[in-house]
């Protein structure tokens, strides 16, 4: 007889025979999303570099893409991924009964890869309900429904593999990991718990082949629900801002600061006039708690601060010279919201964005980046996933030395050249310094 090792046997309720009842209830609320992007009069890179060679023009092209989504209210609001609908010229939603409806974008948040669509309400429209992603523990059942490879209504089942995964997709990564099979076309679809509640929005996979190997990631409902509510009510996202530049604490830094461990976020600098400065936070402080939440590192503090509603009051615990102190801070609103969500602001229509967050070159980064003392340019802080910049190979840490043969000295220079190239319907040619090596990158205005 095999021993159970002291564990009580699982009940039939804990291990259901199947998930057919949940699938029958929720399948009508899950949709396939098809998009079309029409690219007209795009000039080839050869035309741009050799304008007198008489090169030909590319004929208008149509790009089609497929994703998934789910109805969140009977009014016709549908949740999906931003990368499914970004830059789409046409968007259609296909319901489980094969009926198709046109959809419009209500709002998008590239930083969390969440978007909200709207269709005309249908009679007796089935909607999903949000669940509590924070209550999910590794080993709990997960159910994914979507349209992988165009196969609508596909159901896969697995377990929650891990929580709070940072896969370097964006500044606010906090993914759920599941081994429920997720493939191309599942993006934007729901991840359900065993009660049929949405606890995540399927977004990404790790795969060397392009197919599922049992490592999928979903935006937790805690994050997605907040973003969706804001997009529906205002069409935009407001994130908290405290005004500090941070860096991770290494064991050697912790030792130099006289701290017992490497937990917390080290304040590298404080922005003048920011909430942090007004609260008394100084460079060299280590933030260890934020509103009763322990801060393990920079990522924790970034998420905690961004999730606060502007105007809210929080308590920040800092360690300065080995002494802890509690400070009261009033969270402000980000004034550079478009840059922080991966888009250069005020470059034209909302759907044509380069997708980079830019700044002057940080003095402390010059040696690390391998830059010469006389190198000038604009520092790429972040690159939005699936943006034009990302697709062209630009990376965080690159320094844009010139654009269209014009030297760049500040972020506004890049914006000006990008706007000019868009008006001329030509690619913008960047000269990049990457770890001391020079290279050219052409970004098409599509």
Question: Could you list some keywords that capture this structure?
Answer:
Thrombin, subunit H; Pdz3 Domain; seven-stranded antiparallel sheet; six-stranded antiparallel β-barrel; 27 strands; disordered N terminus
Structure description:
This protein has 446 residues and is of the alpha+beta class. It folds into four domains: 20-118, Thrombin, subunit H; 133-232, Trypsin-like serine proteases (Thrombin, subunit H, Beta Barrel), CATH 2.40.10.10; 240-333, Roll (Pdz3 Domain), CATH 2.30.42; 344-443, Pdz3 Domain (Roll). It has eleven helices and 27 strands. It has helices at residues 20-26, 45-49, 82-85, 221-234, 251-257, 275-279, 298-306, 337-340, 366-369, 388-391, 411-424; strands at residues 30-39, 61-71, 77-81, 90-94, 100-102, 104-109, 114-118, 141-146, 154-165, 175-178, 190-192, 198-205, 216-220, 240-241, 244-248, 265-270, 286-290, 293-294, 313-320, 323-330, 332-333, 356-359, 378-383, 399-403, 406-407, 428-434, 437-443. The strands form five sheets. The protein has a seven-stranded antiparallel β-sheet. A hairpin with a 2-residue loop joins strand 19 (313-320) and strand 20 (323-330). The termini are far apart. 39% of the residues are buried. Keywords: Hydrolase, Periplasm, Plasmid, Protease, Repeat, Serine protease, Signal. Its main location: periplasm. This is Do family serine endopeptidase.
């Amino acid at each position: 007889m095999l021993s159970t090792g002291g564990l009580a046997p699982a009940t039939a309720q804990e291990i259901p025979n199947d998930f057919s009842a949940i699938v029958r209830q929720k399948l009508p609320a899950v949709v396939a999303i098809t998009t079309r992007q029409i690219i007209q009069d795009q000039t080839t890179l050869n035309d741009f570099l050799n304008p007198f060679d008489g090169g030909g023009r590319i004929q208008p092209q149509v790009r089609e893409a497929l994703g998934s989504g789910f109805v969140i209210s009977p009014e016709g609001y549908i949740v999906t991924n931003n990368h499914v609908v970004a830059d789409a010229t046409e968007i259609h939603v296909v319901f489980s009964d094969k009926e198709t409806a046109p959809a419009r974008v209500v709002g998008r948040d590239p930083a969390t890869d969440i978007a909200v669509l709207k269709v005309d309400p249908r009679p007796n429209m089935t909607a999903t309900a949000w669940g509590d992603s924070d209550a999910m523990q590794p080993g709990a059942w997960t159910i994914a429904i979507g349209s992988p490879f165009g196969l609508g209504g596909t159901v896969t089942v697995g377990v929650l593999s891990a929580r709070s995964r940072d896969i370097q997709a964006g500044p606010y990564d906090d993914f759920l990991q599941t081994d429920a099979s997720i493939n191309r076309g599942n993006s934007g679809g729901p991840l359900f718990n065993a009660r049929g509640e949405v606890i995540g929005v399927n977004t990404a996979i790790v795969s060397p082949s392009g197919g599922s190997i049992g490592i999928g990631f979903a935006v937790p409902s805690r994050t997605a629900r907040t973003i969706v509510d804001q997009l529906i009510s205002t069409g935009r996202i407001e994130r908290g801002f405290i005004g500090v530049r941070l860096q991770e604490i290494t064991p050697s830094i912790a030792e130099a600061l006289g701290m017992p461990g490497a937990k917390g976020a080290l304040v590298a600098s404080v922005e003048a006039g920011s909430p942090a400065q007004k609260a008394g936070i100084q460079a060299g402080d280590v933030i260890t708690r934020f509103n009763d939440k322990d801060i393990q590192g920079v990522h924790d503090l970034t998420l905690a601060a961004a999730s606060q509603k502007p105007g809210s009051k929080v308590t920040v615990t800092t360690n300065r010279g080995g002494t802890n102190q509690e400070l009261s801070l009033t969270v402000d609103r980000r004034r550079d919201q478009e840059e922080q969500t991966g888009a250069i602001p005020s470059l034209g229509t909302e759907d044509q964005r380069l997708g980079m967050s830019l700044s002057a070159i940080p003095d402390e980064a010059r040696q690390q980046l391998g830059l010469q003392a006389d190198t000038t340019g604009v520092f790429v802080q972040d690159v939005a996933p699936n943006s034009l910049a990302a697709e062209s190979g630009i990376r965080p840490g690159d320094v844009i030395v010139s654009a269209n043969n014009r030297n760049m000295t500040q972020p506004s220079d890049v914006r000006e050249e990008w706007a000019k190239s868009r008006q001329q319907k030509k690619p913008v040619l960047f000269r990049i310094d990457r770890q001391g090596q020079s290279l050219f990158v052409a970004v098409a205005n599509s």
